[in-house]
Design brief:
With 97 residues, the chain is mainly alpha-helical. It has helices at residues 29-42, 47-54, 58-65, 73-82.
Amino acid sequence: MSRFLDAPAGRPAGAAATLDTPTSAATAAADIGAAVRKKRKEDGLTLADAAALCGVGYRFMSDLENGKATVQVGKVLQVLTALGLDVTIEARKWPNE
């Protein structure tokens, strides 16, 4: 199973997560969903309004915000772009490096 889908130590699988800083690492689908929900609420958008703005369905937006691990990556990127959120991928620094 992918590390992305596994819950980090100290948080059970499926538990809600929050990204408090612009550079927080997303290690689970719930992390991305929490960031999307936070941005949507900061922008004063309802779930229906955000879904329409992003060009996705209400159900998809709800699934994404609730951390469903099987949402389509292309649509996730579409939502992130529409909401003004960026994705950065970097090689992880391991403690023994």
